[in-house]
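Order emerges. As here.
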Amino acid sequence: MISLSSSENSTVSSIAATKRLARAMMVSGGEFSLLLACCNSLQKQEQVLNLLTEFSSADIHEILLSPAADKLYTAITTEIGVTQPEALMVRGLESVVEINQLIISTNIMRDEFRKQFRFPLVLWVNDEILCKLVWLAPDFKDWAASTIRFDVPNNQLSRATQIKLTG
């Protein structure tokens, strides 16, 4: 039986998740779609973004939100202008000071995303931001297909650690 070390296993699952993300962006085909990429490590997020260029031929634009951002829709439209990228990645949600306000305004403006954007929108979130989306923007969050995870959720990681320590 072949046994993978945890780092090899992590790499294999990152590659599979990256391929799923690339495929989900491709399937969008000029229509709005919301994709949630969950990663608790900014370093891992960078690695995934570098890997994504190998699996996707799409011209992917990237926006890094300012900590002062208060409206996601406005931040995106200000950044892209009238252009419609093939795909758009939004990073930096975890650094936004008024994140609750930004998420609530996103839920209120949700119809504008679908009306104005003809591309897949990938929001990079961590577990905390994902929970806030569920509670503060349930209608917007419901537009997303299943969340694509690039690492183990914090609660599963601590549970696995507890099992190892007590087991």
Q: What stands out?
A: Confidence is low (pLDDT under 50) at residues 1-6, 154-167. The chain has eight helices and five strands.
